[in-house]
Amino acid sequence: MQKKRILSGMRPTGKLHIGHYVGALENWIKLQDDYQSFHLIADYHVLTTDLNTDDIYQNSIEMLIDWLSTGLDPVKSPMFRQSQIKEHTELHLILSMLITVNRLERNPTLKDQMRDLHIEHVIYGHLGYPVLQTADILLYKGNFVPVGEDQVPHVEISREIARRFNNHYGKVFPEPEPLLTKFARLPGLDGNAKMSKSLNNTILLSDDSDTVKAKLKKAVTDPQKIRKGDPGRPEVCLIFSYHKKFNPEEVPDIEANCKSGALGCVDCKMNCASNISALLQPIIEKRNYYEKHLDEVKDILNDGETRARVDAQKTMIEVREKMKLG
Ligand code: TRP
Predict the structure, then answer these.
(1) Which of 11, 132, 156 to mutate to test the pocket of ligand 1 (most atoms within 8 A of CB)?
(2) Which tens digits make up the pLDDT trace of 213-240?
(3) What angle do CA 242, 71, 309 make, to 5 degrees?
(4) Three-state secondary-structure class, residue 186
(5) Which of 7, 10, 185 to probe ligand 1 with, by most ligand atoms within 8 A of CB?
(6) Among 37-51, 113-127, 178-192, which stretch is predicted with the lowest mean pLDDT?
(7) Domains of the chain
(8) pTM, whole model, 2 decimals?
(9) Three-state secondary-structure class, residue 118
(10) Which of 5, 31, 65, 256 is the most buried (most CB within 10 A)?
């Protein structure tokens, strides 16, 4: 039996952080054996909020190195840039005829972005973000899309567009379904609900142990626990939420000793830092390898793009036939 297909993608914004690992990569790695995965570097999507393309190539390479270093296997799953496979733009144009402006304006992810980035007048391409994303998914006939909550509205739009195409021209596409990542978002070092580069509150996958220690030292904890001996409230503490993820065995002890006051924040943070670094150590070693073997990284990208292109072209032949544009 043929494996079901997964289309997973990220915008290349540079080096990835542990929030990406927890929220996405860990899941992608688990899924790569049971599904045929396609890993997309969504470089065109970056343009929707940033027209400066000076760093886009370098950022794509950095992200690819992080993907490889965490354990995604390029032999099992092609890794490729959206911009290098022209079929994305071709299918995007066709799909853009199958959805109304009104529907796209109701996209809650767009509304959030407009608010967060203070965008008053949205550009045409940004409005069409989910249409391009739909092309990314449908071009490879993706059955599932591993995403966090915020991307679910986009996948819903993809389902509508797939349905409309199939009804109108004949069945080509599966209706893709979201595969929700189980672990909730990792909060940032400043206590913000989201770890994010633009908020400058991240621990990078490439941070060495001294950097992780220094960053955790500055992180916020329970503001009512001022010195060792004060009873703490683990449920409001950022560091405790990291322990839950990166140090699950010690969680009952840490909880008890924080509450009683026996455990001070500095010790607790340093313990947390060493657990995070234990996870990062093998990733950093692989990263060092790839940084020294950039030709290998470029070959992986080249190979991924060649393989992805074959599938993309196959789909477009089918699309054109159904549309009598052959
Ligand atoms: N919108 C996704 C994000 O910001 C990135 C993305 C682009 C994507 N195309 C995709 C994700 C296709 C899944 C499938 O996270």
Answers:
(1) 11
(2) 999 999 989 999 988 899 999 999 999 9
(3) 125
(4) coil
(5) 10
(6) 178-192
(7) 5-186+294-322 (3.40.50.620), 206-287 (1.10.240.10)
(8) 0.95
(9) coil
(10) 65
